[in-house]
Amino acid sequence: MRNVTAVTVGRSDWGIYRPVLQQIRDNCALNLRLIVSGAHTTPDAGYTVNEITGDGFVVDDTVDMLLSADSPAAIAKSMGLGTMGFADVYQRNRPDILLLLGDRFEMHSAALAAVPFGIPIAHIHGGEVTQGAIDDAFRHAITKYSHLHFPSTQQHANRIVQLGEEPWRITVSGAPALDNLRTMSFLNRDQLAERVQLDLSDAPVMVTFHPVTLQPTETEAQITEVIRALANISGPFIITRPNADTRHSLVTDRLEDFCRQRDNACLVSSLGTQAYFSLMREARVMVGNSSSGIIEAASFGLPVVNIGLRQAGRPRSANIIDVDCTVRAITEATEKASAPSFRNSIKDLHNIYGQGNAASIITDCLKSVPLDEQLLLKRFHDLPPLSSQMAAA
User: Fold this and answer.
1) What is the pTM of this model?
2) Domains, the chain
3) Residue 367 pLDDT exceeds 60
């Protein structure tokens, strides 16, 4: 039986991972081991390891790596702690395949620690671009560490080839999070209201705003603009805490202040996968800069006001309204997105990130790929040379 070890580092990947991990767990040819790290084990993030066990998964190992501070130095030191912690786990239980997802700095630590062990790495959601986040560098670095790639679109697959990866290693799977939509039972609005203890007679505004990690000195100005814009918008508001990025505590503090001053707003550490997707189905608009607005929201026909640079570079569906991080731009875009005419214009939207069959594609590859020298010995795949005219230019 082939041992597949998956690493999960927070709510940002768990809802995406879950359909894939369920299929791996249920496949008789595979044995799933789960390493839990990052924000999952911190109380401030809602101690979301409980969501993992609540979904019926066994946590085989944990790696505590996050320092309480959120400065650039603290993030860098956390990465070092993570690399040492993952190395200890691999020494005790060496995986046949290590499964990683996305672009978080915590995930990069897991990948980096695996390289000296010669562990085959399979990576989900490579080839994407987020120009406003340091995640961009981590994502592409993980691609170069990895031996198998499961991008969400053909465009992302092409980028992986541009990074020098051999095409045979790449399988376009679509976005695994969309698999949830085929099997999940959703909460209705009354059940959501009970969950968050908020009157949801009117469809809520969903807010998810993270620090733009390539602009850390602008975080205070940016969250100030977001808060001022929210004050111009009618609620109710369900707001999720930011990821554990540089200066996330500043964003959290400002959002807490906003919610304390209003009886129609709440800030939640983690809704869990079911409630989060249920909220996307019930919300009238999503405001912020989360990848879920770009990738999953289109499947719900949910209008999204995407703020600033954090998600710049990702392909978009027609439900996205991109705006600068200014009060006026956010306010006007939210009014436009909330209009019935805009909602009607995207009701039959096709989601460019897939149709919800990623888990079976990924699992089939993990159980059948030969774990041999060809997989481990990576060769750089050169693209055809530029024409002399292009080279001269």
Assistant:
1) 0.88
2) 2-174+357-376 (3.40.50.2000), 187-345 (3.40.50.2000)
3) yes
